[in-house]
Write a structure and sequence with these properties.
Layout lengths: L7 E6 L4 E6 L8 E5 L4 E8 L4 E9 L2 H8 L1 H13 L11 E6 L4 E6 L6 E7 L2 E6 L6 E4 L5 E2 L1
Antiparallel strand pairs: 1-2, 2-3, 4-5, 5-6, 6-7, 7-11, 8-9, 9-10
C-alpha cells in the first residue's frame, strides 16, 4: 500500500475468508481489526491501486469441500497428494477472481469467471486490471470498462 502517513495496512486470511487491518501507528498500534467480512471466496493477496480502492485476489470460491479443506490441514494435504500423484481433483472455480473494496473495506465491484481460478495478484493500470495465476505461466488482463458486478 502506497499512501502517505500510513497508519494501518490490510492483510488476508484465506482460511476464514476475510481480511484484517493491522494498525501500524497511533493509539491502536499493534492491534488487528476486521477489514472485510465474509468474502465469497478465499483471498490471496491485497493491493492498493492509488485511487481509493483495494483489490483482493480470490483464488477459489467457497464450497463445502473448500470449507472442510481449510479447516483441517491434514485433509488438505491428503487431497493435494491425491491430486498430484493419483487423479485430478475437481475444484470449485465459482467466485474466483477479483473484488474491489473501499478504504474502509466496503465492497464495490466483483470480477469473476471460471477462467480466473487460482488468481493470486491483481494490478490496476489505467482501465485494465492485470493478474497472475498460481497455475498459469503468463499474465492476463481484464478491461474494466467492459463488465463487472457492482456491489
Amino acid at each position: 500500500m502506497r499512501m502517505r502517513n500510513r497508519t494501518r495496512t490490510p492483510s488476508s486470511t484465506a482460511r476464514r475468508r476475510r481480511c484484517s487491518r493491522y494498525h501500524i501507528r497511533g493509539g491502536k498500534a499493534g492491534t488487528v481489526a476486521r477489514f472485510t467480512g465474509s468474502l465469497p471466496g478465499y483471498p490471496d493477496n491485497i493491493r492498493y491501486d492509488g485511487e481509493g480502492r483495494y483489490w483482493i485476489a480470490l483464488s477459489a470460491g467457497r464450497t463445502l469441500e473448500w470449507d472442510v479443506l481449510m479447516r483441517w490441514p491434514f485433509v488438505r494435504k491428503l487431497v493435494y497428494m491425491v491430486d498430484t500423484y493419483v487423479v485430478s481433483v475437481p475444484q470449485n472455480l465459482r467466485y474466483a477472481g477479483a473484488m474491489s473494496v473501499t478504504l474502509d473495506g466496503e465492497p464495490v465491484t466483483m470480477y469473476t469467471d471460471r477462467g480466473l481460478a487460482h488468481a493470486t495478484g491483481w494490478l490496476k493500470v489505467g482501465d485494465y486490471l492485470y493478474y497472475g495465476s498460481l497455475t498459469s505461466s503468463y499474465i492476463s488482463r481484464i478491461d474494466l470498462t467492459k463488465s463487472s458486478i457492482e456491489a
